Amino acid sequence: MNKTISVLMVGVGGQGIVLAGNVLCSAAMYAGYDVKKSEIHGMAQRGGSVVSHVRFGEKVFSPVIPQGGADYLISFERIEYLRYLSYVSQNTTLILNSRRILPPGVAMGTQSYPDEIIEREKSRFATGVEFDADDLALQAGNAKAASSVMLGKLAEFLDISAEAWMKAMQDNIPAKLIEVNDKAFKKGLAHKA
Q1: Own/partner long-range contacts of 99-105 (Cβ < 8 Å, ≥24 apart)
Q2: Pairwise CA distance, residues 146 & 157, whole Å
Q3: Per residue in 8-22, pLDDT tens?
Q4: What's the domain range around 184?
Q5: Cα(188)–Cα(185) distance, rounded to whole angstroms?
Q6: pTM surpassing 0.85?
Q7: Phi/psi at 2 (nearest 5 deg)?
Q8: pLDDT (tens digit per residue) in 120-142
Q9: Total domain count for the chain?
Q10: Which of 8, 21, 156, 164 lies 20 to 30 Å (CA to CA) from residue 76?
Q11: CATH number for position 46
């Protein structure tokens, strides 16, 4: 593969974005790619925005995805992808968790949730997939495994073997949680949105 693949993962602190980025990096390395990663935590521990840039290919020179350069935008929360539209091109694939974490204004009733904007902006993407990753994770045995569901859906689009994904999970996830995360990953991979 001569092309560098750029994956932008976004969400809210506590959703497993950093862990998912680490698993993706490991899986891509096991698949033989050069890998670079950059992340911004912001106020992650207080529910703030978290973003992880992961790039892999034959030779990657920068960990940061350029504007308009994301091949995949993975949004772990329904509204978060709107913050990162400057990374999108007509070739970008959106993988969107339908999970809502209400911003303070919406939770207090002073603002409304921007469903119309979310739906309108999804038309910018070459391909868009939206589904409830939290529900699929719960079906696998633990709602906190939603990040593995999201990785499973991403795996559908990438040239990385099942063995590489499993090794990557074993490297980054505590042993007692491997089984549930493997089930969650497989639910994401098999889900037809």
Answers
A1: 99/132, 99/133, 99/134, 99/146, 101/12, 101/47, 101/77, 103/79
A2: 18
A3: 999 988 888 999 999
A4: 5-190
A5: 5
A6: yes
A7: -85, -25
A8: 999 999 999 999 999 999 999 99
A9: 1
A10: 164
A11: 3.40.920.10
